[in-house]
Amino acid sequence: MPVCLTGGAGDTADDVHPAWGPNQEWLLFSSDRDGDFEIYKMDADGTNVTQLTHNTFFDGDPDIYFSGIKAVFTSYRSGNKDIWEMDLTQPGYPVNQFTTHTGTDWTPTYLYDSGIWAFTSARDGDWDILRGGPGPGNVGQQTIGDHHDDDVWYLPPNLFYSSDRFGTWDVIKAPNGLPAQKFFGTSAVDKQPAPGPLGRWVAFTTNKDGNYEIYMKNTVSAEVVRLTNNGVADTGPAWWAWWH
Fold first, then answer.
1. Under a CB-based contact definition with an 8 Å cutoff, are residues 207 and 189 in contact?
2. Helices marked H in the chain
3. DSSP character at residue 144
4. Which residues contact 179 (CB under 8 A, 6 or more apart)?
5. N or C: which end of the chain has fewer CB within 10 A?
6. pLDDT (0 to 100) of residue 177
7. What 3-state class would DSSP assign to 22?
8. 120 to 25, 82, 141, 152, 230: CA distances (angstroms)
9. Are 75 and 58 in contact (CB under 8 A)?
10. Which helix (DSSP H) or strand (DSSP E) does residue 126 occupy?
């Protein structure tokens, strides 16, 4: 049964892009409750909400390092969407700019404990996945082609992302050194893959039923399970528990 952690009577703010901290004790999310999107932190039960960024520019798409000491996010504070990192251990939550390209960079994610980070970029004219780090810079191409590849980097040997390379937006699995393959593909929009912590399930968003709902698929048995079923859009899945 879904539990609403934010919002309430009269609340018109958009709270999006949740990212769970270690042991699911707290999470980060982005919200426009102060007039523009900023990064917030709150406890797992929805209490102790703290605003971490304070400016008049977009700050969103947070992802948390596995130990919870830092987070990468997208920000427009440089006049262009770039990737930044935030220190969650220091007062004031100091930030460090990771990308400085004139193309749009967004939706960053860490590669577990390696310090390497990946993100979506339009710097070569279409959406591709790039990887960088550890630390600022050292950016290299991960997906290449006249496609629109975006969304989620995952632990080797598998890379999950959304792509229209097969004609419609599908969830793609790209094992290291092997051709990309459809992990979930329909004639509708299938996107935003989110692999579970043990790698046995991948949650994703699809509008194959007429509006966006959350599904998950087992990486071994190929079983598909529908997780939401209502008349409004459900998107951006993020894992909380350790599924088996």
1. yes
2. none
3. -
4. none
5. N
6. 67
7. helix
8. 28, 10, 10, 8, 30
9. yes
10. none
- The residue type of 86 is M
Tokens representing 115 are 């310090």
Residue holding tokens 């393959």? 181
* CB of 76 closer than 8 Å to CB of 83: no
Those residues whose C-beta lies under 8 Å from the C-beta of residue 51, and which sit 6 or more positions away, are 34, 38, 39, 40
Q: Which one of 18-32, 80-94, 171-185 scores highest in mean pLDDT?
A: 80-94
Strand boundaries in 32-88, DSSP class E: 38-43, 50-51, 59-64, 70-75, 82-87
Q: Kindly report, residue by residue over 169-204, the tens digit of the pLDDT.
A: 999 988 776 788 899 999 999 999 988 877 789 999
149 has pLDDT over 70: no
Tokens of 177: 């050194």
CA angle (101, 173, 75) in 5-degree steps = 25
Structure tokens given for 160: 């999950």
Angstrom distance (rounded) from CA 108 to CA 155: 14
* Bond prior to 195 in cis (omega within 30° of 0): no
